[in-house]
Amino acid sequence: MTDTRISTKSKSITKLPPTKKGLKKIKSRIKRELEERRRERKANLERDCVEEELDEETIRAANLKYNMTCFLLNLESPEEKILKQKVPAQSRKFSID
Q1: What's the rounded Cα separation, in Å, for the pair 64 and 48?
Q2: pTM
Q3: pLDDT by residue (tens digit) across 31-45?
């Protein structure tokens, strides 16, 4: 953000960097806007939770499903485990007898 000042003699517009006071105002405005957004989001979430009123069993089922999905995604197939194992140097050499 820059300060716009009009020179009376040359009738030209010059843009100057904001002053310390101007920077403080800009920062405080941004902080205020962010805080307002946070409050709005929090209020919306609380309102949505009250409207839905999920029972504990539904919440537990959703958590269990999420945990099982994460567990299954982290499992490796036996073929992947074999491929990841380090192979000793001697077995890598091919010999024809």
Answers
A1: 22
A2: 0.35
A3: 888 889 888 888 877
Domain boundaries, the chain: 19-72
Q: Residue 18's CB: how many other CB atoms inside 10 A?
A: 13
Rounded-to-integer distance, Cα 91 and Cα 79, Å? 18
Radius of gyration of the chain (CA): 32
Cα-flanking dihedrals φ and ψ of residue 72, to 5°? -65, -35
- How many C-beta atoms surround the C-beta of residue 22 within 10 A? 14
Residue 61: what are its φ and ψ, rounded to 5°? -65, -40
Separation CA 54–CA 63 (nearest Å)? 13
Structure tokens at 8: 């009376």
Give the pLDDT confidence of 60-69 residue by residue, as tens digits: 787 788 777 7
